[in-house]
Specification:
Elements (H helix, E strand, L loop, with lengths): L6 H16 L11 H13 L4 E5 L5 E7 L6 E6 L19 E2 L2 E3 L7 H17 L7 E6 L11 H7 L1 H4 L3 E4 L5 E4 L2 E10 L1 E10 L3 E2 L8 H13 L9 H11 L4 H9 L6 H4 L7 H10 L3 E9 L5 E2 L2 E10 L5 H12 L4 E8 L2 E2 L5 H13 L4 E7 L5 H4 L7 E4 L21 E3 H19 L1
This protein binds zinc ion.
């Protein structure tokens, strides 16, 4: 039997890892994740563990380590890059790692150096406890999740060093946060994410002098298409994850609320049912986006001079797809709203993803959460945004990726609104809670 764990000392140890990671400026671009990779390599070496540090490009460090167990492995995956910050808007500087009144401050405290620190801690505890493993436990802290196409992180590892990170099950960021509906508490486990279809709409027209308007103006054509897209109401497509999410909530509610939740899935009743749900406005707007493909016009470009009608104009659109919908289906759907005066050209595409909720790792997560918070219910969730799953699943379609960083809102006010915002911070309490839950998940699944 392994020795009992001294969780007080683990709390200060994992807090220290997080603080040290936060003190490294791994803003992407440019990334410089090598800083974090070197640091983690040092921690692993001190523990007598072998690790692999690779650079996908100068400064773009990826670090992996493995505890052998044979059998289908579990990959604990995190990214060490962070988004940009505006230091003058912060109370404690974004790379301070300051511990103040139970909070650890810094860019990445929630996304996702907190989870990297927790997973590192779990990995070390599994080693220290001397468990006999029935599966490999793999730790990976990788570069380049936050910017652009993310070519320097886990996707690069799968292409260049697959033996380091291939595993049928992955736990990474995404879900794990709690919420309440009529007094019942839930935790999400993110099993799905929408796909990405970022594209350009380009129009061509006749050039001319600004003093002589004509009807073949490229700028007007693109503006018309953008306006059409902006007011489009796209059809609903219900994916399995969203159905399971709403059914999971409905099971705990009165028959009236349960019916409203079901109505959300019915295209004819959805719009009416949504505002009547006992959910936050943020959750309702999330559901609205999850029920359909979405298209946001985010950038425009046309013309060089005020008095010249240009021959070309372009709008960039951030499209997000319900799992199961392809780019072709999406374009067919939006064409009536953009009209035929623009051409579509795809810049970035990755399909929507859904992992199974009948897998053994999902069952383990549900079991372990039952031990830590017996009153709560775990529901699968799907995100409008993407995680590193978009780099894994297109390369390894059989891999099941779950987003699960357990987090209790009650112990940290408004924390989720701070992701990518100013004053990002996490409570030590949540960091330790996550470490304990993830530790138990790994022990139960891998021993
Ligand atoms: Zn992230």
């Amino acid at each position: 039997m392994p020795e009992p764990i001294d969780w007080d000392s683990v709390a200060s140890e994992v807090t220290g890892y997080l603080q040290n990671l936060l003190r490294m400026d791994t803003t992407n671009p440019p990334g410089n994740e090598r800083l974090a990779a070197d640091y983690i390599a040092g921690v692993l070496t001190n523990e007598g563990l072998h690790s692999n540090l690779t650079e996908s490009a100068p400064g773009r460090g990826n670090i992996t380590a493995r505890l052998e167990g044979g059998g289908d492995g579990l990959l604990l995956l995190g990214h060490t890059d962070v988004v940009a910050s505006e230091p003058d808007k912060w109370i404690h500087p974004p790379f301070s790692g300051r511990l103040d009144n139970g909070y650890v401050w810094g860019r990445g405290a929630l996304d996702m150096k907190n989870m990297v620190a927790a997973q590192l801690m779990v990995f070390l505890l599994i080693k220290r406890q001397g468990h006999t493993l029935s599966r490999d436990v793999i730790f990976a802290a990788t570069a380049d999740e936050e910017a652009g196409k993310g070519d320097h992180g886990v996707g690069w590892l799968l292409d260049n060093h697959p033996e380091q990170v291939e595993a049928p099950y992955v736990i990474t960021e995404g879900g794990g946060n709690d919420f309440e509906v009529n007094g019942q508490r839930f935790y999400t486990c993110q099993t799905g994410q929408k796909g990405i279809c970022r594209f350009r709409m380009t129009a061509e027209g006749e050039p001319g002098h600004g003093s002589r308007p004509h009807s073949d103006n490229a700028v007007v054509k693109v503006a018309d298409a953008a306006a059409g897209l902006g007011s489009a109401s796209l059809p609903t497509h219900v994916c399995e994850t969203l159905r399971a999410f709403l059914n999971g909530i409905g099971k705990t509610q009165s028959s009236h609320v349960a019916r409203k939740l079901r109505d959300v899935l019915d295209p004819d009743l959805s719009e009416e049912a949504l505002p009547e749900l006992p959910l936050s406005t943020q959750m309702v707007s999330g559901l609205q986006a999850l029920l359909r493909n979405t298209a946001s016009v985010t950038m425009l470009q046309a013309g060089q001079k005020i008095n010249v009608i240009p021959t070309e104009a372009t709008a960039w659109v951030d499209g997000r797809l319900v799992p199961g919908r392809t780019a072709e289906m999406f374009f067919e759907e939006i064409r009536p709203f953009t009209g035929n005066q623009v051409e579509f050209e795809v810049d970035q595409y990755s399909p929507g993803l859904e992992a199974g909720i009948s897998s053994p790792i999902y069952a383990t997560i549900v079991d372990v959460m039952g031990d830590h918070d017996p009153e709560a219910v775990v529901v699968p969730s799907i995100s409008t945004g993407g995680t590193d799953a978009k780099h894994i699943c297109p390369r390894r379609p059989d891999t099941q990726v779950y987003g699960f960083m357990p987090h209790r809102q009650e112990s940290g006010e408004e924390e989720w609104g701070l992701i990518h915002g100013h004053n990002e911070r996490t409570t030590v309490e949540n960091l330790v809670f996550a470490t304990r839950v993830l530790h138990d998940v790994v022990v139960r699944f891998c021993t």
